[in-house]
Write a structure and sequence with these properties.
131 residues, mainly alpha, 0% strand
Length: 131
């Protein structure tokens, strides 16, 4: 199996586990009355923190500078967070779609975006130049 395919599978497994738990927490705390974007913010922050370790070591087998990777990871997730926030703002707040369904779709959109950013920016392989 190609390396990229293995990474996608591993990323998917990490993502399924963390996002399933996160989504259930999101449903629970919004059901208790927490505002939807505040709930998304809380769940997003916890999930992103946990995901760093799983993605760095297991998905991408990154052996580079962990501090640099962590800073890049934070920037990537700030972009992912803004994308998620914007999706909720537009589709739930302005267009009136049920926030539960909007957030469920947003999880997949943001996950695809983040995979690309992690692979090519945060945990990228450093190619050595020879010659």
């Amino acid at each position: 199996m190609k390396k990229a395919a293995r990474q996608i599978i591993k990323y998917g497994l990490v993502g399924i586990m963390s996002n399933l738990v996160g989504y259930l927490c999101y449903l629970l705390i919004t059901n208790w009355g927490m505002e939807i974007k505040m709930a998304m913010t809380l769940v997003y922050a916890v999930g992103a923190s946990v995901g760093f370790f799983g993605n760095r070591k297991w998905t991408f087998a990154h052996g580079g500078n962990s501090t640099k990777a962590a800073l890049s990871y934070v920037l990537a997730h700030l972009s992912g967070y803004l994308l998620n926030f914007t999706i909720l703002l537009i589709f739930a707040d302005h267009l009136g779609y049920a926030h539960q369904w909007v957030q469920a779709v947003a999880i997949f959109i943001v996950a695809g975006f983040l995979f690309m950013v992690f692979k090519y920016f945060v945990f990228r392989e450093h190619m050595e130049h020879t010659g």
